Amino acid sequence: MEYPILSYLIFLPLIGVVALFFLDHTKEKLLKGFALFITLIEFVLSLPLFFMFQTENGGMQFTEYLSWIPRLGIAYRVGLDGLSLWLVLLTTFLSCIAVLACWEDIKQHVKEFLVCILLMETGMVGVFVSLDVFLFYVFWEVMLVPMYFIIGVWGNPARKIYAAIKFVLFTMVGSLLMLVAILYIYFYHASVTGEYTFDLLKWYALTIPHSVQIWLFLAFGLAFAIKVPMFPFHTWLPDAHTEAPTVGSVLLAAVLLKMGTYGFLRYNLPLFPEAFVSFVPVISFLAVVGIIYGALVAMVQADVKRLVAFSSVSHLGFVMLGLFTLNLQGIQGGILQMINHGLSTGALFLIVGMLYERRHTRMIAEFGGLSKVMPVYATLFMIVTLSSIGLPGLNGFVGEFLILLGAFRSSVTNVIFVVFAATGVILAAVYMLWMFQRVMFGEVTNPKNKNLPDLSKRELMVLIPVVIFIIWIGVYPKPFLKPMEATVNGMIKRVEQRVNKKNSVQEGKVSFKALKVVKSQEEQGA
Amino acid sequence: MTIPEVNWTSIGPELILIGTAVMVIFLDLVVKGKKKDSLGYFTVLGMVLALVFVVMDEGGVTKAFGGMITNDSFAQFLTVLIVGVAIIVTLMSMQALREGSMDVGGYHTLVLLATIGMLLMVKGLDLIIIFLGLETLSIAIYVLAGYRKGVEQSAEAAFKYFLLGAFAAAFLLYGIALLYGATGTTRIEGIAQYIALKNLGTNPLLLLGIGLLLVGLGFKLALVPFHSWTPDVYEGAPTAITAFMAVGVKAAAFAAFVRIFGGALPLIGFQWKDVLWVLSVITMTVGNVVALSQTNIKRMLAYSSIAHAGYILVGIIAGGSVGWSAVLYYLGAYAFMNLGAFGIVLFYGHKEEAHVEIADYAGLGFRYPFLGAAMAIFLFSLAGIPPLAGFMGKFYLFSAAIKSGYIWLTIIGVMNSLISVFYYFRVTVIMYMKEPIKEVALEYSLPITIVLIITLAGTIQMGVAPTFYLERALDSIQWLIR
């Protein structure tokens, strides 16, 4: 690389933060405009990642290296592959949207809010591009602080503090155990190779004994499962989402949750392939429970925002199911579904936020018949709702279809899981459409709703770009799927080789599964 | 009888500090009224000179005064740390002395004398010297703890600390005597050699001596169950002195701890490591759990400092180059972040420490953005959030533990730091997420500004660019690695 794009992406928001300190805190518009400017530049800077990305290359691209703490083998190593490409782009894209969306919403302590948003952006990009485990951990933890403030300071006054603390504690439980596991692998690597390093790519070459892998998988897995969040670690999510300000919910849903699923693919799969295979039934089971449980609970919510929050639990269940199919369609579908969920759920939170700004309530019972009062709003809401349900032609369908297809053809997952997961799609239609019907259709019963203004130009600017991507992915997903293909194939191959090698050495349950993996690969090749 | 070789440069910093102390006493008679401030600056000047002396004295001598005193890299590292702490404490005190009614000259003199005691503890190669240092520092601190005239809690703090401290000193001395009985010497090296020679692993006299030493030092380190004095004393003493006790005394006591257990008793580690394991676990757990329910910020920081001592023990248990250097690194990180936090407590607390309840901090974050951000950074660092000093310190400590195979200890350690997250974050909740309940007018002064800038810079630097400190810490513990 001639010029370090990834470093620009990581440090530009930080420079923005420093600059913000020197701006007058009373000039709201200036502050917001400046933050928007920074995030827009960031987005533009991130575009070359897509155009210069070599699709056939399954390895790391745009890599950078800078010595940091040489004594401990810690360095600034960053890079990008087909897995992180879209997550980085999603982050830079949604950060612009987030700044634009906070325009009317945030009136107090604007400067501090924007500082938090920009810090979050640094952390989010950093998590997705770190190739040094120490660096990854630093970004992973750093992210907590701005999100904690966003929920706790600008959240819903009644329960914001509870939600903020709960968010921090839940996330920390997992990440601290992950830290122990990281240190363990660090010393294990040193004892095997004699080299003290936190270089993730070197760690990939390690063959850790299966019994140890199980524990390490659990330690990493817990951190990621809480973040995803997988059933039964999801209880922080409805609180955090409901109490956070709109922008906080958007970033939380769209990007932060993806760190969990990303972590499973970046860390658990390549580092502990044998354990990964052994855990397929457990995780798939929890994923399916999450899908159905999330959907059922969403159905009975009286608060639209809480409904969307529980729908996240359900959607992320699909993603997890996809990742644990261990075949190309499933994992690709899973990654695409991460993006889709980011777009659709992000948009849903924005839409709910717009309603809240007008009425200062989110209770479904308060509304009804809004489609007559706000036709433009209704149209966009409908598109996003359908995308969330997974209507063909919109993004959600592509992802869910690939996941179910992958899971169906997968040799490691049981078909039973697929059957139950598929009911989740139907349930999604039930809770989303029912909610939509109660809010938007019928007569305007509540007089307060009679004169609600339709979307402003700014609000259109917020929603339209997201909707464009929703339709684009739905109609022509190829440019989105293509760049991940080589990377995902590489991952699957690595698992296959590792599990095969084990198979030739030792008999038993694991090797039986390994045989099934190989069989499925052959089928797919044919 | 031969007169042992005397090497004055090896105690250069102490001599400078003694000179400063004597001059402060005299200047106190001459300088009157508002100019008393200059006494503080004069004290700081003396300390800075001592600091420069250590830094210039690269290499130093390893043995002086017939092998009683050393000036090795370990001692130098801690000398820099302790004198640095003393400088910051003096600067903090200047803020408090301006507002309060405490006697200025005596205060600075006592801080100087306490510092000299700490330095002797760090430099002693003989248990007697270490004891001498401990007593010098203790007596000065007893007086300082009761320095808030007319405040009952302060008098209580001094008295309590004095009584229990005297007891602990007796334990320590008895331990030294038993060690002498078992090995025939009070020299660190001599004890190690004798144990190796005679294979004294299970000698009851020796073990009893070690146990008593542990009690004596455990008292100064506020390890559970020898910690019961800590909260009351920390709450009652002037805030700057509380900071001095929490950071300076602890650093000196840990240095002595490392000298004795790492230097004299490494061969029988199997005898004391299990005990320390238990002490470490209960110390951090009790410290953290009790800190959860505190409403006074000084008490909260007192319990948190107990917990931090528990973390540091993890490094001592782990041992090895990583473990020992992690102890030193953590002491440095802890000094910056804790002094910073105490600096803000003192500054915000105002005259007569009127605002030291955690509830008083409501609204601080947005009213005083710099102060709020600084406090948040210190608290996050204490909680171990990267990329700050406290995280790097804990990371290094726990990596030492994992390296030596103490996985459960590490897991208990990280879970403890989770508990600590709760009470450190709670202060930020109050600062940023609650409406202010009272008006606190603050006026920045030069000394407190310097304190905040130094501690903030240190807290961030030790987290982001730890290499400099890491290398120094590793250099300093070479003598422990055989």
What does this structure look like?
The complex is a heterodimer of chains A (526) and B (482). Chain A is mostly helical. Chain A has 21 helices and 2 strands. Chain A has a domain at 278-478. Chain A has helices at residues 5-21, 28-51, 82-101, 110-129, 133-142, 144-154, 160-193, 200-203, 210-227, 236-243, 246-271, 273-299, 304-323, 328-359, 370-373, 375-389, 395-409, 415-440, 457-475, 478-505, 509-525, and strands at 61-69, 74-80. In chain A, strands 1-2 form a two-stranded antiparallel sheet. Chain A starts with a helix and ends with a helix. Residues 506-519 of chain A have low confidence and may be disordered. Chain B has 482 residues and is mostly helical. Chain B has one domain. Helices cover 76% and strands 0% of the residues of chain B. The interface between A and B is medium-sized, with 32 and 32 residues.
What is the string of SSEs of chain B from the N terminus onward? HHHHHHHHHHHHHHHHHHH
**Helix fraction bin of chain B:** over 70%
Question: Runs of chain B with pLDDT <50, length 5+?
Answer: none
With helices defined by DSSP (H or I, 4 residues minimum), what is the helix count of chain B?
A: 19
Number of strands of chain A: 2
The whole-angstrom Rg of chain A is 22 Å
Give the SSE order of chain A as H and E letters.
Answer: HHEEHHHHHHHHHHHHHHHHHHH
| Count of separate DSSP helical elements of chain A | 21
**Cα-to-Cα separation, first versus last residue of chain A:** 38 Å
Overall mean pLDDT of chain B? 89
Instruction: Give the overall silhouette of chain B.
Output: globular
Largest interface: A-B, 32 and 32 residues
Major pleated sheet of chain A? 2 strands, antiparallel
| C-alpha-based Rg of chain B, rounded | 21 Å
Content-based structural category of chain B: mainly alpha
Helix content of chain A: over 70%
Rounded to the nearest angstrom, the distance between the terminal CA atoms of chain B is: 34 Å
Task: Name the poorly predicted regions of chain A.
Answer: 506-519
